[in-house]
Amino acid sequence: MEQSKTLVYQFKFVNTISDIKISDWNTYFGHLNPFTRHEYLSALELSQCVSHNTGWQPHHLVVTQGDTIVALMPLYIKTHSWGEYVFDWAWAEAYERNQLDYYPKLVSSIPFTPTTGARIGFLPTLSDIDKQHVISEVITVIKHQLSERQWSSWHGLFSHKAEHTLWANTGIIERHGCQFHWRNNDYVDFNDFLSSMSSRKRKNISKERAQIHKAQLRFTFINGDNATDEQWQGFVRCYQRTYLKRSGHQGYLSAEFFRLIAQTMGESIRLLMIHNAQDELVASALYFVSNTHLYGRYWGALSDYDGLHFEACYYQGIEYAIANQLNVFDAGAQGEHKVARGFYPVQTYSSHVIEHPAFSDAIAHFCEQEQAHIKLYMEQMTQQLPYKTSN
Q1: Is residue 153 within 8 Å of residue 102, measured between CB atoms?
Q2: What is the pLDDT of residues 35-71, one digit of tens each?
């Protein structure tokens, strides 16, 4: 134990993940979460969805001891707050009102992907004591970067609870959030899932699904590595049309990004293709899978049908998770409307270092108050769950 406290680590920053071996990265982060895989992050960079020009300049951290890599961390220099989903716009506005620069800032996250996972990958043989020591040293290095480069802050977003505890032990600012995830309570099929609900909630869902049934739509899940170019192009067309309609642009992710992940990690992807009775593509959704989780990420529609979003993004995912014995279905950020459809409130965690002392104190106070509100909100959402009894 004493020896671990005297270990000397070296730190370097690289401006592309291609400077780090795929085997090293995926060994340190594991394969449980598809979004922390080297292939996913590399596709973001190679497609230029993540770059200096898009405000996501890679600045990944490599921690070594001698010739051995002991830890790796995705890191980006950000010139805005888009695509993060832990919202700090009010903090940026406060800086601006005081004639201070909030950007650039440093962010450790998976770009455009608000899913919980590891935000630092460790050498598998590293002890818990040494992991804590590494994280403490990383915070010291980050603070030096902020001071030296005159950046405002560092933000570690959506880390899992065990890792967040390690960050919290260094005295950083903690922030909590809430998402809604579906749990598989050993359901046999969708009807078994519905039978766990109160009569009124069960009827509401059945009514929503009946609308889609009348439309005679066909839903087909396709493994990403088996999908044809035409099917991928169809998904991209749906994705871009819906983003354009909703946000005025074609989305953060390009056709080239989707082409790359189809090539390099298609086995972790499920494309949901939705056709009408005339066999015309009307909508599509993109899911990712791990051994335990189903992740719903993107969807789009070429035609409008009442209830199609709920069917494509929630009910089809629940059916898939049940059929494949997956434990959790994470359908994306926000959305308390998910509660009525059986999704539980789940706490999320982020860590923050603010360089400016006065703003650090103010933001820490804000986050402390916000935690109390999040706790109360989650309790209220739990009370609104549609189940007959607590599951």
Answers
A1: yes
A2: 999 999 999 999 999 999 999 999 999 999 999 999 9
